[in-house]
Write a structure and sequence with these properties.
7-stranded mixed beta sheet, 11 helices, 7 strands
Length: 296
């Protein structure tokens, strides 16, 4: 079993390489991290094309959702993006918060920070900044953010509870987050979980959906809602790297599921007026329940 430091080093090394790849290379693989599948599409990401504020040069094809599309960002908000990469979600958030707001991207990979800063300078965005640091120990003071977003990043951090506690600390009272991430229902085969490349590729670092939502509840958040959920299917030519043919058949017949979810929650406190937030067509009255039930 790798230590927390070893896992972080694996992710940092892999994402340093990804920073210098093009979107087409990343889009052919699992969050840009694995050898490309012969099925040329990303098995995680959603399409940003047509999204206001979208900058193609900042999109490395590493996400698993569209959290900024669900975050209810308002003019003048201070927004923090966790694991900001080349700046994609920061620039979309900047369109929503306007020139009067502020956007802070946090990433622990120097190559990503360098790329994001170059993109911001090229665009002339003086109210978007990028800070190097771990998201489980953010270089940000208490009660700073109105909104926090993140796209397929918390699954890469060994201590999810620590990150969620940090999110609570950094949000203003009444602030909220909208985070897209990868979660599991059932247990992945051990070969997938242990491989460093798959860890950096988003899947092996994922935890159970029920556990993920419980961490959010335990941190003190309220109004926890599942805004979107979609199943993730790993192509056979990726599974072939880790499992035998028999194991692949058993894996597909089992109860295990890999999902991309977008989760919303609020920090208790006085709230300013907020727009109505988007909820998935998958959402129902039963979906707004306790984490103990297996949903949110």
């Amino acid at each position: 079993m790798k230590t927390e430091k070893e896992l972080k080093d694996s992710v940092r090394e892999r994402y340093s390489k990804i920073a210098n790849q093009g979107k087409s290379e990343n889009a052919a693989s699992c969050c840009g991290a694995t050898t490309p599948s012969n099925k040329i599409y990303n098995i995680m990401m959603d399409d940003y094309t047509g999204t206001d504020g979208y900058i193609e040069d900042a999109d490395l094809g590493l996400g698993c959702g569209l959290p900024t599309n669900y975050a209810g960002i308002m003019k003048g908000d201070t927004v923090i993006d966790l694991g900001s990469g080349a700046g994609n979600d920061c620039f979309v958030a900047r369109h929503e918060t306007g020139a009067e707001g502020k956007v802070i991207g946090i990433d622990f990979t120097p190559a990503m920070i360098e790329k994001a800063r170059a993109n911001a300078e090229k665009l002339g965005y003086n109210n978007v900044e990028f800070r190097e640091g771990d998201i489980d120990e953010m270089p940000v003071n208490d009660n700073v953010a109105d909104v926090i977003v993140s796209n397929c990043v918390l699954n890469l951090v060994p201590d999810k509870n620590k990150v969620i506690t940090e999110i609570f600390r950094v949000l203003k009272p009444g602030g909220h987050f909208s985070i897209s991430d990868i979660v599991l229902v059932g247990n992945l085969p051990e070969a997938l979980r242990e491989d460093a490349e798959m860890y950096a590729g988003c899947v092996a670092g994922a935890i159970q959906k029920k556990e993920y939502l419980q961490h959010i509840k335990d941190a003190g958040f309220e109004q926890i809602n599942l805004q979107k959920e979609k199943p993730i299917t790993i192509p056979d030519d990726i599974l072939d790297k880790y499992l035998s043919a028999e194991e692949i058949n058993e894996f597909k017949k089992g109860e295990t599921g890999i999902f991309s979810i977008t989760v919303y929650a609020e920090k208790p406190g006085a709230k300013k007026d907020k727009p109505k937030l988007k909820m998935s067509e998958l959402q129902s009255e039963e979906a707004c329940c306790s984490p103990d039930s297996g949903c949110c």
